[in-house]
Amino acid sequence: MKLNRTLGLLLAAAATVGAGAAVAAAAVSTSAVASTAAATTPAPGGRHWHHRQGGMLVGVMLRATRQLNLTADQQTAIKGILSTARAQHLAAAGTAGVDLVALGNPGDPNYATALQNAKTAAANRLQKEVDLQGQIYNVLTADQKAKLPQVLADMQSKAEQRRAAWAQQHGAQTEGAGSN
Q: CB-based contacts of 126: which residues, under 8 Å, 6+ apart?
């Protein structure tokens, strides 16, 4: 079930944002390594990819680095990695995206092609994100790499607590609204 949801989210991300947008979005969320860029511009076509917190993998990695006490050299190296990824994304931004008209209509004769293109775009975006995450991971010291699993576990625990609190708060509101 979780795999289906994850794949669905990947397809939706590819259909609405396009391949590689998560790389650029991750570059924007570099407050983990100070402020990488003073200002960002929307991607061509008016997409506001910079409003997202970044891709799933890179975003988690960058949030975790905040707790790993990076040196100035490490921060500079990560900024360089993200800057390169952003430049590559912007260079590829002019390429054709996913055909939303065909993808949104299963009766369209081009639906199968559009679906395959969306799957390919999602796979490419995920691979770019994995590569970027690996580059950032390689900047860490052995001690930081050893500390990373605990930092990630703490982040997951806090996220689960927030979800539980949200569910409790909103579950009570939903129950109260249904009793009228």
A: 10, 57
pTM over 0.85? The answer is no
| Residue 121, C-beta contacts closer than 8 angstroms, at least 6 positions apart | 14, 18, 19, 97, 98
- Measured at the alpha carbon of residue 77, what is the angle toward residues 17 and 127, in degrees to the nearest 5? 35
25, 60, 99, 158, 167 from 154: Cα distances, Å: 24, 12, 40, 6, 20
Sign of CA dihedral 32, 157, 128, 50: negative
Residue 43 CB contacts under 8 Å (≥ 6 apart), including other chains: 18, 21, 24, 49, 90, 93
Sign of CA dihedral 106, 111, 116, 118: negative
User: What pLDDT tens digit does each residue of the chain (180 aa) get?
Assistant: 454 555 454 444 444 434 333 333 333 333 333 333 333 344 444 444 443 445 778 888 889 998 999 999 999 999 999 999 888 888 877 666 778 888 888 998 999 999 998 899 889 889 999 999 999 999 999 999 999 999 999 999 999 999 999 999 888 666 555 555
